[in-house]
Each structure stands twice: as C-alpha cells, then as structure tokens.
Amino acid sequence: MPHPTLTPTLPTTETGWLRIQGDASLQTLVEAANTPALLKQALKRSFSWQERNDMNVLRATLSPDQGPLWAAALLAWDTQIYFDSGDIAPYGAFLKREVKPAGRSSGILIRPEAEQTRWGVAEVARTRRDTPIVGVVAVVDMKGTLVETARVALTGVWQRTADLAQAPAQLSGAELSSDAIAKVAAAIAAEVDPRPNFLGSVEYRRAMAEVLSADALTQCMTE
Amino acid sequence: MRGKSVDITLTVNGQEQHWTVGNRDMLLHVLREHKYFSVKQGCDTGDCGICTVLVDGKPVRSCMTRAVDVAGKTVLTTEGLAQQGELHPIQEAFVETGGAQCGFCTPGKIMTAKALLDRNPNPTVEEVRESMSGVLCRCTGYVRTNDAVLRAARKLRGEDTGPLQPLRFHLSEGETVEDVELPEPYYRRDNALDPLPPVVITPPDMPETTVVGAAETKVDARKLVLGRPVYAFDKFVDGMLYGALLTSPHAHARILDIDTSAAEALPGVHAVLTYKNVPRVKHASGGQTPPQPPPYDQVMFDNKVRHVGDRVAAVAAETPELAQKALRLIKVKYEPLPHVIDPMEAMKPGAPVIHDEEDTVGIYDAQRNIVHHIEAEVGDVDAAFAEADFIYEGEYYTPKQQHVHLEPHVTLTWWDENDRLVIYTSTQVPFHLRRMVAPLVGLEPKQIRVIKPRIGGGFGNKQEMILEDVCAMLTVRTGKPVRMEFSRTQEFYSTRSSHPNIVRYKVGVKGDVVTAAELYLVGDTGAYGTHGLTVQMVGGLKGLSLYNPPNARFVSDVVYTNQPPTGAFRGYGATQAQYGFEVIMEEIAEQLGLDVVDFKGKNVLKIGEPMYLAEKLGEGREGYPQDLTTSGLAECTRIGLEATDFYAKRKAYAKQTGRYRKGIGFANTMHGSGIAGLDMAAATIKMWDDGTFFLTIGATDIGTGSDTILAQIAAEVLGVPLEDVIVYSSDTDFTPYDTGAYASSTTYISGGAVRKAALKVKKQILEFAALMFELESPEGLVLKDRKVIAPDGRSFTLWDIGMASTHQMEQRQIMATASHISYVSPPPAAASFAEVTVDTWTGQVTVDRFFVAADIGRVINPVTAAGQVEGGVLQAMGFVMSEEMVFDEKGRLANATIRDYHPFLVDDAPPIDVVFVETNEETGPFGAKSVAELAMDGAAPAIVSAVHNATGVWVRKLPLYPERVWRAIREQA
Ligand code: FES
Ligand code: FES
Q1: Which of A173, B379, B855, B909 has its Cα between 20 and 30 A from that of B966?
Q2: Which residue among A92, A110, A128 closes a domain?
Q3: Which residues pair with B516 in a beta bridge?
Q4: Is it the case that residue B641 has pLDDT exceeding 50?
C-alpha cells in the first residue's frame, strides 16, 4: 500500500516552542511542517533515512557523536531539554553537566522559526556524506539591522563533540558586517581547543574554525 | 537470546507471526533466525544499511531496531516483494540494469527503493541519491543501482522500459572514433547526475557475434534480487558448533603462557585451539599457484603475536554467546615487545625484529625486517640517465586500503558421509584452499572438498586463507560441523588490505622521449609476507611498462611492520605504481612545457613494442616476453578529450584565482589479463538430452558477473541463447580446476577454456549430426539457432541431436573438457578523466565527474563490464579521497568501523560515464582482454592531476585529506 508523504505539525508549548517527545523518530522532525529549516537540513545531513527512522530524538540528541552537526545545530538553535520532573535545561549546559535537573530527560524544546532569525552552516569533510572534520552552525537573531544574539556552535574543535563558542557574544548590538564577522571568526579560532587526529591537526582545525565560522556567519548576512 | 524473553506478535510479509524474543535481540538476528535470509548483515553496528527492512512502510536498519519494538507492526523484507514467482518491478529493474553485482547489498537497496517509490513515484535523481545514501554498496559505483531505482519508478508508473541497452556505434570501413558523436548528455554540460548507459564503439573489422556482446542479464540476478540464501553467510548446518577467534590486543608480544582450562571446562565448549595443541606447519596464507611464493612465515597459532588482531586461540562451542564467553575465559600471559608501524623505521638497524623465529626461511634480512629485496633491470639505466637532457625525481605515497566487501569472511566445515572434510566458504580460490588447508589439519588434499557458493564481494581479500584452516581444524578436533564468521571489526584487524607503498621514481627524458626510469618501491607487507613479493613485482612491471623506457630499473624492499598483514587487493600493485608514474609524467610535461596528453601519448607503450621488463618480472618468478598486440588507448584518449572538453577546460581552469576552483585531470592506465604462463583454467560442458548445456567451471564469480560472461561465450559457440546454458561454479569435487578469481584472469583465461570446451562440444555435435544426416563428414554443417543445418537445407534441432545421442543411436555423452593457459597477458588500457572542485580555503576536494574510455578488447557483456568499471572507479576514488587504515602509536586502528573509514556512499559518488572502444585481441576469447582491475588504476592520477589543474599544487600523498590539500596550497602560496 502506498504511504503518502505526511506533513504533520509538531505540538507546541504555550510560548510557541515545539515540544518533541524523546521517543519520536528523527524523521518525524523532517516531515513536520513546523520544524525549523536549519534543523531539517542538519538532520538530513547527519543521518541517513534509515537512521532518521530508527533513531529517536533523545538518543540522537544526548549522544552527540551520533550526529555532530545535528548536535551543533541544536546548540546554535538554543534548544532545551525537558525532564519528566518538569525541569527544563539548556542543551549545552546539560551536555556539559553544568546543570543538574531532576528526573529523566523526556524530550526537547525547540524554538520556532522567526523572521528575525538567520542561520548558516559550513563544514569540511573528506566527502559530501562523511562526518564533518570541522562543522559550524551559526544562528543570529536580528533586531532591525543589529545583531541581538549570535550563537555559533562548532564540531571537531573541542574535546567535546560539539560546543558553543563564546566569542560571538561580541556581535550583540553590532551590525553583521564582513569586518565584524572576520573579527569574531578569528576570536572563535583563538577560543577553540581542538584535539588532533588523522583527519586534522590542531592547527588545521583551528584554521577551519575561523574559515567556517566566517562562512556560516556570512550566510546569516544574506539569509 | 539476549535479555529477558518476551512474546511478540507482528506481521512479516503479510503473515502474522508469534515469536518469543529477547528484549535486547535485534530485529536483524530475529528475522534471520526465522529464515528471512534476504536480510543481510554488513556490520551489525548501524553503519552500512544493508540490513534495511521496512517497518510500517519505513526503512529502518534492522540491526539497530529491537525486535520488541516492532511488536504489533508490519515488517516487509525482500522475500515479501515477489508475488507468485513474479518479480516486483523494483526487482526486475535491478536485474535489467545490472544493479545487483555480488548482490549482498541488494535486498537493502531494494527495500529502500520500495519505501522511496511508495512515497514518491517520480523521484529525481537527486532524490534517489539522497534516499539511497543509507545503503552502502561496494561493487556497483551506484550508477546501475540509481538507474535501477529510476527505471523501477518508470515501470511502476506504467511507462515502458526495456532492459538496459548500451549505446552502440559500429564503425564502417574508413570511419574512426572521431566520427562518433556522443549524444549531448555524455558531455554533462548541465552537470546532471543521471546515470547513462555505457557506450560501445566497435571497429569495422570486428567479427559479428550474437550472444557475446549482448547486454544479457546476469545468470544469477534473479536469485540475488529475491534475496535467496545463496551465500556462505546464509548457510547453517544441523548440530553445528560456532567457532570464534581470540585475537591479540598487542601489536607485538610473546605469549609466555596461555591457560585454556576454564574455557575448556565450560559446558558446551567442544574445543580450544592454541599454539600448544596445533601442529606448527609453516605456510603462507595467500591463495597462489604452487610453488607458493615465499616466505612461509605463518603457522595456524603461534607463541608470538605480530599485530593487533593476530590469532591467539580459537574455540568451538554450541552457541555464539558461549563461544564468546569461552574466549573471555582464556588467560593469556603476554610479554609485550617493542613494535614498529612505519616501514622506513622498520628497516633501520635496531628496529624490533618481527620475525625472529628460526623456522621461517627465505627472509631477505630478518634483522632489518626486509622480507624481500627485488631488483630487475633492462638496458643501461645509468648511461641513459647520464645522457638524458632532463632528470626528474618524485616520491608518492599510497594508503593501506581495506576491501570492505560487504559479506564478511564466513566458513563452514563438516565431515560428509564419506569421511571427507567439506569446506563451504566465501572464497575466491577454492582449489588453492583445498591444497593449502590439507597439511595444516593433517589431511591429504583428496580428503577435502571445497565449495564456493555465491560470494558477497571479495576484491582480493578472499584470495587468502583467513578462517578456513582454523574452522577445518575445529571440525577435525570435534568431529562436528563448525561455522565461523568474522565481525566487521575483525575484517579490519584480522584479514588483509592493500599494500601501502612509498613510490619513488627517477625519470630521464631526452627531448620529449622518456629514455630511462627507475622505480624504488617500498611495500609495507604488515606482519606477514603473503603476496608481498608478487604485489611488488606486478607494481614494478606495470609501473615501468606503461611508458616502457628501454632502460629501466626496478628495486623494491618488502618490509614487515606490526600492522595487520596486507594481501591481494584489486589493482595488485599496479594501482600504486602507475599512480606515481602518471603523476610524474605530468609533472615532467609541465616542467618541459609539453602538452601532457601528447607527451604521454608519444611515450606510451605501442602496438608491436615489447614490454622490456616482462621477462624479468613475472609474479614471484621470471616472466615471459610480452609484446603489445592490440591497443585502443589512443582512441580512448581522443573520445575522452572530446567528451570532457578537456583542453578548453584545462586552459580556463588554469587561470582561476577565487576560493572555489575547478580542475580537470587525465590519466592513462594499463593492466594485464591473467598471469602469463601461470594461470590455468578449465571448463567442462556437457549436452543434456534436451539439447541444452551444463557448463561447469572452477572460476569463481565473486559478483563480477563472470558466470554470465562465461556462459555467453559457451552459448555463442554452441549457437544457443544464453538461457540454454546452465552454469555451475565452483566445487573442487565437481568442477574442473581454475586458479580462481584474481589477476584479471577470468574473462581471458577461464573464458579461453570455456571457448575451447565449447568448440570441442560443437565438433562432437556436428559429427553426431553428420551421422543423423547420413553424411560422411560434418563439413559444411552449420550450428546456429539451436539447430544443425545441412548444406541442402535439412536440419536437426539440438533437442533431436540430444535425444538421439543419449537414447537412440550410437549413444554417447556429448561432453568435453578443455584447459587454457596463456603465455601472454595482453593489457587492457583506459584513459580516465576527472573533474573536481577544490575549496582552496579548506582543502576539500569534490569529484564532480569521472569519465573512462577503456579498451578491454571485445566487450563480452557491456552491462556487467560497465559495472566493473564503475565499481572499480568508485573503490579507487575511496583510495584517493577517504579510505586509509590509520594506526595509533600502539598499533591499534583509529578507524576500524565503516563509518570512520568511510567508503563512498551514493551521495558521495560523482556521475561515472563509461565508453568502451573495442579491439580484437586475437589471443582472447572472441577478442576479449580483461576489465576488473583496470578500473582501479585511473582514479588516483586523474584526480590528482585535476587538483593540480585547479590549484597548481601537486599533492603526492594519498588520500587527499582536506588538510593535505590545504597545506600544499598554503606552502605554494
Ligand atoms: S548490518 Fe545493519 S547497518 Fe550494517
Ligand atoms: S552489489 Fe552491492 S555490495 Fe556487492
């Protein structure tokens, strides 16, 4: 029997955030009409169709190694984890064990797409479909012509699989110009703490953090 | 059963099932336990996708899905697709396009395609690539699998699609390839990704054939697309034990003691093997023609381990879990020894000595870990260098590549009713195995029968005794059937790989002629020397014959390191050596301001010229003189230049300055067709009473389609359609001898044997028909269209002749066996063109397109031949771009998973277009040469050449990791 393409909508909280149960398949997010485009792209880039069907949201989210670019996208998108106790924790802080919420993690909260939100993704890999050696996801919230907040998450440049850089905070209140991007990309490169392996030395990963952060942020200028 | 037992109800292929499963059992294993054998396992860790089944219509990896999680759901496997024996249109499309080569990934691909087409009846090629990217295929290059999905979509939409046909150009007298106008899509000006049919260009003087040359569907395709249990992986025997291997965690260590008492005491454990209780029979594990090339540096189990993954002990137990438990109970006392991973370090005085045992003979310099030192020379090299106008030197490096055939090594052994040991195994060399296993397990070869079923890919890694000796010994010791199977991790650690090579060339040029060349090849053979000698010798011959200077010197050191041993890998040294020569030729052309195509064309081996080194470099011994008798390389080059618009692009790309730069590269390659004077194949053909034929061959079809093309050769001679020839291969009891599937020998050597056997049978048929016609001699009788026709127009069908000869008059069995050996190994040749985009800021190289024009002699089957080229190109692209076994300082692999190692997936692959320029090689069956290995050789030099065109840098070390390219660009800047 044919299975028509489904376009369900993900449930939302009172504040409009998408509330995704941990046991939902990743493909649910790809097929839902209201999943932010960045997350759809990160899912498709990080997981095969099979993986998106047989892996649930919580597993993919709490084990960033499963899909580093997906983890970076969630970090940059300011995702929250919710718990059966009712607690909520920022994804990044939870991964780093900086918070100790009560109960068991139950799902994720994703803020909805907004007009003032722009994003960009950049990466380097051996091949198109390979896990990125370094990957960068940038999300910038604009207020008029100025940056309100900028979040840049990187993979392949920390001991952890993915983490947010601090340097983009300096963009707040500034215009998103090429100069500003170049400065913040350089600051990100100075901030990262890569571990070398056969795919990239410390020097290379640091250099890529700069190039790709600039790329991802530049995409935010035009989005 | 893993975990607590749970009763589940589910629907599988429309039938309700009530099963008791463990709550940690994965669906893959549960389905296979219930005999849904179409569901294959390539990794069991979620990385290959070939275990895909549909759960409620969605594709999932069954190895990552718990059986309890599908309770109440519907599961569809490939067994559930065909209805009343009628193939599903998707299965039909995979048959028609050659989308199933070894077929081991095919059920996973078919199920994914089913899910896609259920949702999207009219997918674009991009959507097909995206959707299918979760299923790895190691054989096809994805061209034909993508084609199959698009074709299936058309079928399901009710559009007419015939079987895939090549685009043919039959040149008339006076026409040349320059008169061929390829259709617009072959120029790929729009960057489309669509799979295109292969092109066959036939010269005017090529004799006409009917079955040979036709795009026949593979004789085994139906069973492969149905997912039938045709592999060793699918074989289980009642009462069998499960064998398992304990391997070394150390790169180099002495085993001071090994205590197996606890394992042996475990109820259900039937045998434990270690160095203490198996005979120490020195041998080499490579499947090669005797006398086996030295050194004999292996024993079944040793008191020393020489690489992580080396054999320590084996057990046979009643369940796989028990076998693993027994392994954990074996206490090994190791004395770790210093180890060495780098071959250059291994040759230094004072390096750890890897083979210090006294009973290995034939090591050239054991103290320096040099197992072989090879020297061969022709002409006066030093004088030629002294007289050269220009001398250029370059060093190149090629990685250690793993085969990643998707069916792992699997072996079953049992005693048959005649007390003979049966070895049912996934091998490329059944006849060699029979001979090699016997002394190791204390039997005579005549007591052993080796059966090779369908093989889920080999690429050289099954030209080796990997599990067979251990499994056989466990059966000898226990008297019971034993099954052994490697995990994907064991495939990486405990099987074989290609030889990583340091390739140093020195080339002397006078004017624009290469007058002298020297090749120094360091071959890292890993912990054992199997294939070390022969791979390097082939590298020397093929590397120095392509441009064939009259003054040539080959020097090689084959070096032990504490890495897993290397072995046979498609390309067999030629890939590595030709990569270096091709690149250095382009470097020289650039330095001298010469057109690279002209420079190579001027110097390349030409018809009538001898290969100067051929007599000195055979395989493991001296060779035979070889002259080039046919070559379509110049025509191949011309076609490629035109189809890729090479010169215009080269010029335009050389001037780029931006971040993203395009490049186009070109390479010549040549291979061989079997090992001259060594490879022997035989074939037997008998005619049944119904006038059809049974062809038995020892040749081993490892997914290449060799059964099909050999049957085509027989059918052509016997004047029948392909369906009238039933093929059986290979079983050492029932099929005649064949060296096995290696050295690109099957089409040329085995095909030669089949043709001879068919000619003998034809002669018998005509003689018998003459009796029936009451003619004095068969002269003038014609065998065609299932009939023998007399000059006066009378005819008898083969049915008539079969019935008469078997049952009615002067009865006899029409049957013949023939053997074939060749003292020449005519080289097929190809011109390869790669187009790339380089991100100069990150160093990432993307291959946008690959075009190959190949002369493989007569193309016996354009679809299977194109599949060999496409698959070989993509496997080689992995060698260039991503695939390398990387070791840490302890000798452990940094990337022992498919995910980390990263063979190309569908979405990684560029379009690969294939054009065949036929030649008529008189020594080959119907003019054929070979194809399988040639395809490996062109990607590396063509892509490196394209990167140079884009960026101006030469990246001489493979793979082209982005950092390597980035550094080269920065260094240049
Ligand atoms: S066997 Fe399931 S993904 Fe490889
Ligand atoms: S046909 Fe795909 S792995 Fe062999």
Answers
A1: B909
A2: A110
A3: B508, B551
A4: yes
Evaluate: CB of B493 within 6 angstroms of ligand 2. Answer: no
Tell me, using a 6 A CB cutoff, whether residue B137 lines ligand 2: yes
- The residue from B821, B843, B875 where one domain ends is B821
Q: Give the closest ligand to the alpha carbon of residue B898.
A: 1
Task: Give the pLDDT confidence score for residue B163 in this predicted structure.
Answer: 82
Please indicate whether residue B139, judged by its CB atom, sits closer than 6 Å to ligand 2: yes
CATH number where A139 lies: 3.30.390.50
- Residue A5: inside a domain, yes or no? no
A211:B841 CB<8 A: yes
**A183 in a structural domain:** yes
Alpha-carbon distance values, A198 to A204, B341, B419, B672 (Å)? 11, 15, 52, 35
Say whether both B425 and B323 belong to one domain. Answer: yes
Same domain, B690 and B803: yes
B129 touches chain A (CB under 8 A): no
Could you tell me if A89 and A125 lie in one domain?
Answer: no
Ligand 1 centroid to Cα of residue B45, in Å, is: 6
- In a shared domain, residues B732 and B809: yes
Do residue B664 and residue B645 come from a single domain?
A: yes
| Sheet containing A134-143: order of strands | A117-124, A134-143, A146-155, A162-164
Cβ within 8 Å, pair A126-B882? yes
B32: left (phi over 0), alpha (psi -120 to 50) or beta: alpha
Ligand nearest to the CA of B27: 1
- B924 CB-near residues (< 8 Å, 6+ apart): B673, B747, B748, B751, B752, B826, B857, B858
B585-620 residue pLDDT tens:
999 999 999 999 999 999 999 999 999 999 998 877
| The domain boundary residue, chosen from A110, A141, A164 | A110
Which residues from A are below 8 Å from B130, CB to CB? Answer: 44, 49
Task: Sort out which chain B residues have CB atoms less than 8 A from A128's CB and list them.
Answer: 846, 907-908
Together in a domain, B56 and B197 = no
Confidence of residue A7 (pLDDT cuts 50, 70, 90): low
**Which residues are B816's β-sheet partners?**
B685
Give the phi and the psi of residue B487 in degrees, each rounded to 5.
-80, 170
Q: Give the β-pairing of B410-415 and B482-485.
A: antiparallel
Cβ separation of A212 and B842 shorter than 8 Å?
yes
Residue ranges of alpha helices (H) inside A47-118 are 49-54, 57-62, 68-76, 91-95
Q: Which domain, by its residues, includes A92? A: 18-110
CATH of the domain at B32: 3.10.20.30
Q: Give the pLDDT confidence score for residue B622 in this predicted structure.
A: 84
- The verdict on a CB contact (< 8 Å) between A49 and B963 is no
Shared domain for A146 and A187, answered yes or no, is yes
pTM over 0.95: yes
Residue A11: inside a domain, yes or no? no
Tell which B residues from 36 to 95 touch A, by Cβ distance under 8 Å: 46, 49, 52, 55, 57-61, 64-65
Q: Flag whether pLDDT at A42 surpasses 80.
A: yes
Mean pLDDT within B454-470: 97
Mark whether B428 and B569 lie in a shared domain. Answer: no
Q: Tell me, what's the ipTM?
A: 0.96
Q: Are residues A28 and A94 in the same domain?
A: yes
- pLDDT tens, residue by residue, B509-563: 999 999 999 999 999 999 999 999 999 999 999 999 999 999 999 999 999 999 9
- Please compute, for residue B884, the number of CA atoms within 13 A of its CA located in the half-sphere on the CB side: 19
Q: pLDDT tens digit string along A79-118?
A: 999 999 999 999 999 999 999 999 999 999 999 999 999 9
Stretch B206-224: mean pLDDT: 97
Q: How many domains is chain B built from?
A: 5
Q: Is any Cβ of chain A less than 8 angstroms from the Cβ of B364?
A: no
Residue type, position A169, single letter: A
Which two structure tokens, joined as six digits, stand for B320? 């796989």
Compute the nearest-CA separation of A197 from chain B (Å): 9
Which chain B residues have a beta carbon less than 8 Å from that of A48?
A: 49, 133-134
* CB of B255 sitting under 6 A from ligand 1: no
Phi and psi of A95, rounded to 5°?
A: -60, -35
Which domain covers residue B302, as residue numbers?
Answer: 232-337+408-494
Would the CB of B44 count as within 6 Å of ligand 1?
Answer: yes
